[in-house]
């Protein structure tokens, strides 16, 4: 059963520490997305890739966030340094683009920054 | 820019009853997709149903059906014979036919009571 795999599931860290979240998209999907979910903002798109190329990272605070796809089986989202306001659930999703359109989500990484 | 609005932050329904969740959207595109995702307490985002805008027939998946009104830009989700396992956040999402991204609404929290 193909699925998007994310690690870690939960992470508690202290302010100022580096946090790296990892995602393995579904094999054969050519788009990968990072979303952040908070109570106040809902689901926000942070960044996305098509065929490993970054296409849109306008939703991401560039001074502390970075997203990469070193290869087709791995996407990473890094926060350095982390701040309490970064506490949220971070979702990775992958898709095959039009004409199907839907995205398949991982279970999310819950980040708590103290 | 496309927007998705879910005007019902919370709803409740008794088991076995029917409930309808509302969603409206704004777009200047003629071809697009619409989706409903379910997020149970486990936080996994699960695709419930999808609708292509060029199809006049409303999509149906078992107990889940949609009322798609293209002219009114309305896309409501009807859940029939509600079950306790339907308790979750429900997100409406818009996807352009020529884009990869999905735009999500703020969600409706549905509670099913015994």
Task: Give a quick rundown of the structure.
The complex is a heterodimer of chains A (114) and B (114). By secondary structure, chain A is mostly beta strands. Chain A is 0% helix and 55% strand.
Provide structural commentary.
The complex is a heterodimer of chains A (114) and B (114). Chain A has 114 residues and is mostly beta strands. Chain A is built from no helices and eleven strands. In chain A, the strands form two sheets. In chain A, strands 2, 4, 5, 6, 9, 10 and 11 form a seven-stranded mixed β-sheet that branches. Chain A has a four-stranded antiparallel β-sheet with strand order 1-3-8-7, with no helix packed on it. Chain B has strands at residues 3-5, 10-14, 19-21, 24-26, 32-39, 46-52, 60-61, 64-69, 74-79, 88-96, 102-104, 108-113. In chain B, strand 7 and strand 8 (64-69) form a beta hairpin. Chain B is globular and about 40 Å long. In chain B, 34% of the residues are buried. The A-B interface holds A 31, 33, 42-43, 45, 48, 50, 55-56, 89, 91, 93, 95, 97-99, 101-105, 107-108, 110 and B 33, 35, 37, 42-47, 50, 91, 95, 97-102, 104-107.
Q: What is the helix/strand order of chain B?
A: EEEEEEEEEEEE
Q: Specify the oligomeric state.
A: heterodimer
Mean pLDDT over the full residue set of chain B = 94
What is the N-to-C order of secondary-structure elements of chain A (H for helix, E for strand)? EEEEEEEEEEE
Helicity of chain B, as a percent range: under 10%
Q: Strand-residue fraction of chain B? A: over 45%
Sheet of most strands of chain B: 6 strands, mixed
What value does the Rg of chain B take, in angstroms?
14 Å
Question: pLDDT average of chain A, as an integer?
Answer: 92
- The number of helical elements of chain A comes to 0
Structural class of chain A: mainly beta
Question: How many helix segments of chain B?
Answer: 0
Strand and helix layout:
The complex is a heterodimer of chains A (114) and B (114).
Chain A: E1 5-7, E2 10-13, E3 19-24, E4 31-38, E5 42-50, E6 53-56, E7 65-71, E8 74-79, E9 88-95, E10 103-105, E11 109-113
Parallel strand pairs in A: 2-11
Antiparallel strand pairs in A: 1-3, 3-8, 4-5, 4-9, 5-6, 7-8, 9-10, 9-11
Chain B: E1 3-5, E2 10-14, E3 19-21, E4 24-26, E5 32-39, E6 46-52, E7 60-61, E8 64-69, E9 74-79, E10 88-96, E11 102-104, E12 108-113
Parallel strand pairs in B: 2-12
Antiparallel strand pairs in B: 1-4, 3-9, 5-6, 5-10, 7-8, 8-9, 10-11, 10-12
């Amino acid at each position: 059963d193909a699925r998007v795999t994310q690690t870690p599931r939960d992470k508690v860290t202290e302010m100022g520490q580096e946090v790296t979240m990892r995602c393995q998209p579904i094999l054969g999907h050519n788009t990968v997305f990072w979303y952040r979910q908070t109570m106040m903002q809902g689901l926000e798109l942070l960044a996305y890739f098509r065929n490993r190329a970054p296409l849109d990272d306008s939703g991401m605070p560039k001074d502390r966030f970075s997203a990469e796809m070193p290869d087709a089986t791995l996407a990473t989202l890094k926060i350095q340094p982390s701040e309490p306001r970064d506490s949220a659930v971070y979702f990775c999703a992958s898709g095959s683009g039009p004409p199907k359109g839907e995205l398949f989500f991982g279970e999310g990484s819950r980040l708590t920054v103290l | 820019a496309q927007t998705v609005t879910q005007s019902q932050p919370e709803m409740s329904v008794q088991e076995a009853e029917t409930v309808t969740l509302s969603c409206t959207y704004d777009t200047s595109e003629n071809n697009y997709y619409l989706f409903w995702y379910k997020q149970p307490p486990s936080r996994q985002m699960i695709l419930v149903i999808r609708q292509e805008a060029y199809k006049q027939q409303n999509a149906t998946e078992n107990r889940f059906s949609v009322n798609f009104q293209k002219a009114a830009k309305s896309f409501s989700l009807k859940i029939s014979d509600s079950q306790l396992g339907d308790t979750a956040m429900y997100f409406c999402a818009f996807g352009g036919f020529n884009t990869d991204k999905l735009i999500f609404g703020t969600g409706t929290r549905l509670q099913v009571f015994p």
